[in-house]
């Protein structure tokens, strides 16, 4: 099917640097299974935690705007904690549709913790961001907070999606700072829920592991409901329209992705237009 002939009215655009956003997309699809989805990953610049702020903002804006010019988008989800702490103001200034970001679930973790000791597992950029520290100060000031930043864990999650075996020894070393110190751990990167089973295995019993997927899904449903009531969007797209995944750079890994993306409902994978 020619993409120029596809009119994805009311489509939900989910963006991430890699495949971590699939954990958010999965949560949103549980609440909104009838919607059509566009998933976009910026593999050319992966991982985002190693980019300068200006470069990250520029890339995300260019990719999102290109896709909003190509398709009719009803809402954009920035399913990347690192990007969400930076790009939301610039995108909201350019687009007249809702933009939803992802923030670490510090507040619910502080409420769930019995020991009043929580952990935040995120990328180094997210851990060190003033925005994150402000969340800790506002919602977890009565808790001891252990911060762990890891780029390796992002890469491990990407490799798992591509069918590679998870290195449990490396994962255990990353999780070691939390052992016997906290009872609730926040997954502050959307890649990390893809490793929830392995994380629970290496941690053992006595830990709650939470992420922002459910909260983002609920917020998305609320915003779309508000738009529908105002008559801004149609209820759903045509059943003939496919879910489409976009990448920013073609490489050997991209060519293997059709099989991995199929369980998420994506039947086409294309390069980001005009980028």
Plain-language structure description:
The chain is α/β, with parallel strands linked by helices and 275 residues long. It folds into two domains: 11-103 and 213-271, Rossmann fold (3-Layer(aba) Sandwich); 106-210, 3-Layer(aba) Sandwich (Rossmann fold). It is 41% helix and 18% strand. The chain is built from eleven helices and ten strands. The chain has helices at residues 21-31, 53-70, 81-94, 106-112, 124-128, 130-139, 152-161, 168-175, 196-203, 213-230, 257-261; strands spanning 11-16, 37-41, 73-78, 99-101, 117-122, 144-149, 184-187, 208-210, 243-247, 266-271. The chain is globular. The model is unreliable at 1-8 and 235-239 (pLDDT under 50).
Q: What does the average pLDDT come to?
A: 88
Tell me, what is the CATH class of the largest domain?
Alpha Beta
- Enumerate how many helices there are, as a single number: 11
Number of distinct beta strands:
10
Strand order of the largest sheet: 4-3-1-2-9-10
Largest sheet: 6 strands, parallel
Strand residue content: 15-25%
Radius of gyration: 18 Å
CATH architecture of the largest domain: 3-Layer(aba) Sandwich
* Count of structural domains: 2
Approximate shape? globular
**Distance between the ends:** 21 Å
Q: What sequence of helices (H) and strands (E) makes up the elements? A: EHEHEHEHEHHEHHEHEHEHE
Tell me the CATH topology of the largest domain. Answer: Rossmann fold
Provide the low-confidence segments as ranges: 1-8, 235-239
Structural classification: alpha/beta
* Helix content class: 40-55%
């Amino acid at each position: 099917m020619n993409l120029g002939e596809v009119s994805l009215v009311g489509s939900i655009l989910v963006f991430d640097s890699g495949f971590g956003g699939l954990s958010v997309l999965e949560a949103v699809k549980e609440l909104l299974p009838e919607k059509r989805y566009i998933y976009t990953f910026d593999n050319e610049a992966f991982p985002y935690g190693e980019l300068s702020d200006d470069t990250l903002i520029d890339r995300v804006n260019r990719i999102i705007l290109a896709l909003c010019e190509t398709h009719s988008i009803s809402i954009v989800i920035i399913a990347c904690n690192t990007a969400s702490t930076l790009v939301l103001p610039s995108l909201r200034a350019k687009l007249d549709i809702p933009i939803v970001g992802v923030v670490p679930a510090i507040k619910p973790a502080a409420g769930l913790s019995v020991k009043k000791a929580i952990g935040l597992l995120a990328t180094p950029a997210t851990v060190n961001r003033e925005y994150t520290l402000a969340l800790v100060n506002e919602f977890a000031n009565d808790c001891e907070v252990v911060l762990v930043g890891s780029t390796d864990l992002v890469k491990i999650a990407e490799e798992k999606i591509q069918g590679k075996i998870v290195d449990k020894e490396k994962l255990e070393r990353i999780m070691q700072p939390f052992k016997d110190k906290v009872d609730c751990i926040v997954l502050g990167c959307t890649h990390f829920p893809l490793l929830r089973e392995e994380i629970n295995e290496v941690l053992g019993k006595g830990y709650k592991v939470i992420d922002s997927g459910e909260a983002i899904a609920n917020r998305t449903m609320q915003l779309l409901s508000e738009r529908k009531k105002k008559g801004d969007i149609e209820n759903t797209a045509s059943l003939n329209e496919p879910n489409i995944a976009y990448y920013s750079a073609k490489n050997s890994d991209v060519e293997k992705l059709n099989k991995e993306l199929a369980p998420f409902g994506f039947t086409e994978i294309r390069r980001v237009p005009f980028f």
